[in-house]
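step=encode ok
step=design start
structure_in=
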């Protein structure tokens, strides 16, 4: 069976690849949207935190013998703690300034992290094997589904929807949103806003670290793995609407599928299709698809 002259299995394979990429876009853009929506910081270090999550997983296995399942928990925690340190040492001084200062600071931190790891481990990259439990593939009849890629999509969806529910449908989320609107008023009710802000940035960093662990068995772990991806993720956040949690998730998954379809019909445009979509959306809706009016 063929679709537009393309074998069905090849067509579905490209869609799966697009869905996996979309899962990473959704998970990374979720962290960016949480940090910007709740703190107003344009976190350009997000790609570097993603890289650090992947390296944390690789170092745990190579140096300490801790397998993928330990890394899936410990690496995001380590990156989240690093995010807490960054927020306490640097970002807390910038909240009342123009967002460009936060962007420049986090961009500088990203360059430092990438430079240090390139000096320590080189630019060629390190291999991280797929965990034994998730190796192989499942024959669905109409296509072969790699088990690990299915796992990546499942985890990303669960984490993204869980984060959205936490922020939009729980009391803790209400406190977080109230803190962005009127922090002094929230403090009068006994809420420690600085600690809440610190934990929010740490949680956003942990989401980037989790994405890095999930990516490690798929791509080579290298210091530059986040530098190109973060540009695409910023485009995803802009399309979905800066600060929109649900917008980032839906847009990330959708653009991954669009990118996969583009690889089928016009491969030469697959690297720019996200930015073309961004230009079109901003012309029609400057606040993004799910963004609110200023």
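sequence_out=
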């Amino acid at each position: 069976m063929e679709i537009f002259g393309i074998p069905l299995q090849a067509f579905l394979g490209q869609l799966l690849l697009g869905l996996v990429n979309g899962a990473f876009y959704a998970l990374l853009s979720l962290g960016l949207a949480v940090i910007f929506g709740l703190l107003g910081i344009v976190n350009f270090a997000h790609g570097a935190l993603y890289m650090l999550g992947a390296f944390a997983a690789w170092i745990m296995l190579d140096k300490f013998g801790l397998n993928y399942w330990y890394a899936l928990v410990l690496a995001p925690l380590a990156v989240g703690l690093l995010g807490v340190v960054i927020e306490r040492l640097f970002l807390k001084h910038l909240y009342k300034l123009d967002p460009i200062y936060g962007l420049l600071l986090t961009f500088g931190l990203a360059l430092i992290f990438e430079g240090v790891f390139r000096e320590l481990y080189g630019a060629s990259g390190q291999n991280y094997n797929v965990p034994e439990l998730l190796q192989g593939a499942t024959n669905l009849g109409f296509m072969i589904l790699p088990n690990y890629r299915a796992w990546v999509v499942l985890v990303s969806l669960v984490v993204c929807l869980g984060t959205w529910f936490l922020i939009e449908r729980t009391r803790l989320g209400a406190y977080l949103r109230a803190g962005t609107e009127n922090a002094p008023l929230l403090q009068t009710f006994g809420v420690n806003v600085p600690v809440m802000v610190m934990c929010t940035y740490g949680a956003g960093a942990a989401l980037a670290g989790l994405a890095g662990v999930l990516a490690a068995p798929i791509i080579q772990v290298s210091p530059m793995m986040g530098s190109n991806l973060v540009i695409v993720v910023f485009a995803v956040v802009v399309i979905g609407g800066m600060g929109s949690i649900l917008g980032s998730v839906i847009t990330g998954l959708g653009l991954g599928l669009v990118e996969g379809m583009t690889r089928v019909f016009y491969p030469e445009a697959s690297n720019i299709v996200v930015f073309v979509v961004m230009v079109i959306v901003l012309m029609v809706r400057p606040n993004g698809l799910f963004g609110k009016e200023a």
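step=design ok
step=annotate ok -> The chain has one domain: 8-225.
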